Amino acid sequence: MFAASSPLKRGAVRLAVGAAVSGLFTTGMVVAGAGAAAAAEEPQDHGGAAATLSGLKFSGDAVVRVGGEERRLRAGLFELAVDGGGTLRTYGVDLDMATQWDARYQETPWSGTSLGVNAAAGKIRWILQNSYPQVNDLAALARRAGAKGLTEQDAAVGTQVAIWRYSDGAGARPSARSKKNGAERDAREVPKVTAADPQAERLADYLEREARSLPEPGASLDLTPAAHSALLASAGEDGARIGPVKVRSGAERVTVAPNTLALVDGMRVLNAKGKPVTAARHGDSLFLDIPKGASAGLAALTIQTSTTVPVGRAFTSGSRSQTQVLAGSSESTVSATALVNWGESGPVPAVSAEKVCAHGGLEVMVRNAGDQDFEFELSGARRVVAAGRVEKVPVPLAEDQSYDFTVAGPDGYEKRISGIFDCRTRSSEARGTRAMAAPSPASAPGAPGKGARSASDLAATGGSPVTPVIAGTAVALVLVGGAAVLVLRTRNSRQQG
Predict the structure, then answer these.
(1) What is the dihedral of CA 388, 392, 395, 398, to 10 degrees?
(2) What pLDDT shows up at residue 375?
(3) What b-and-e string marks burial along 296-323, b requiring 16 or more CB atoms within 10 Å of the CB?
(4) Cis peptide leading into 225, omega within 30 of 0?
(5) How far apart are CA 150 and CA 199, in angstroms?
(6) 182 Cβ partners below 8 Å, 6+ apart?
(7) What residues contact residue 137 under an 8 Å CB cut-off, 6+ apart?
């Protein structure tokens, strides 16, 4: 996920907006022609749904106990508004991290979150599949849990508490306990979270006890790889065909809109058989056909459709706001973007990055389709990717470390990579010197917290009300009218450099 940083220089700003159609798979290309390729606002590497936190739908009190001390916090079901249309409902997976008002979230693989290093992540997905709101027969759910009855508020609180027991090792069952350095933590350091309401607590106990491991769900929509490059000279007189870029989608069938956004005459999107694309399915490969005579440039290939996001998908924020897992989705707008770079000679790079929590940092993928080595600097070290090679460059990062760096190439090519490395829940770390936060005020019994939008509620959900709010760089793929909006700035050609 990336944000713009460079000022516009020596060129016009190009803006392209495609029409949004429900259920339509839109292939939009915004292309900088001769001597113009660097994007001032680049899309993130991971596709899928992008959304803004709206508030708590249903909530109630939970109690966290550590070492004989306790505090209360809000627990419940969140609602997020999807860019381009749609609604998501989620639960949090870090009980000591505040959830920030109006935080921006992006669908993310488990590998880029604490779930990627949590052996119990599959049990969290089982809880999501077998509790509210996926199971909306509350009478039946109460019978299975041995509860006298469940309101929507009770069901939301009980489900959130059960999830925290596996995401944060905050349960009574040994299998749910967190590990540190391969050994169980001292029992005094292990948090225990319970629901304040006895019926919600019975549900939490039932879900924790019955949970079974399920695999990670697939992405709602994705393009792989997220960046590609090609050398025009290697394609001969017919131009260049860049790809393959593989489509991954939960939608059964997606349609490709006519190519109305290309700024280079004759550019087409083709399938694996070399035919112009009119439709695509999960697993299909797309190719960008660059016509003869095209100069060095950069294209952003964006696809979009309307589908439901799979239950269990993770959502992370560019600011320090609690990671979420999906409990339910309406028909929602999802999109994915791949950047494509090409040149006539020399190094022709394409750069993408992925957060890999299991490896303790970023994995930067650098492709060089050119006929010369690509030399660049990353994390203070000089790197070289040989002509025609693809290299993975590890960038070690500390937990909670912010990062912001740019990989620069010839002809003004730039790829900015920024974010926060957040891969552990705070309660999975040692608490030896960490003081317990002051208890939050008890919530009033009665009606559920439907549509709650108060900043204090959000700050107390998944964190104490005195948890510091640390500003981060909010980043997300912006859809205007349900279509890609990409801004390109003119750059100097290699000959002018």
Answers:
(1) 160
(2) 93
(3) bbbbbbbbbbbbbbbbbbbbbbbbbbbb
(4) yes
(5) 7
(6) none
(7) none
Specify the pLDDT at position 191: 84
Handedness of CA 302, 304, 309, 310 (dihedral sign): negative
Residue 453 in 3-state DSSP? coil
CB atoms within 10 A of CB 169: 24
| The predicted structure's pLDDT at residue 474 | 32
Q: Supply 295's token pair.
A: 């100069």
Question: Side-chain half-sphere of 154: how many Cα atoms within 13 Å?
Answer: 20
Residue that the structure tokens 């508490």 belong to? 161
Q: What is the pLDDT of residues 241-282, one digit of tens each?
A: 888 999 988 877 666 554 444 456 677 888 899 888 867 888
Label residue 183 exposed, middle or buried (CB < 10 Å: 0-12, 13-18, 19+): exposed
* Contacts (Cβ under 8 Å, ≥6 apart) of 109: 46, 116, 216, 219, 314
Residues present in the chain in total: 497
Contact indicator for 161, 145 with CB cutoff of 8 Å: no
**Residue entry with tokens 């399915």:** 281
**Spatial separation of the C-alpha atoms in residues 132 and 156, rounded to whole Å:** 6
How many Å from the N-terminal Cα to the C-terminal Cα in the chain?
A: 29
Matching residue, tokens 């769900």: 217
Give the three-class secondary structure for 461. strand
How would you label 426-459 residue by residue, b for 16+ Cβ within 10 Å and e otherwise? bbbeebeeeebbeebeebeeeebbeebeeeebbb
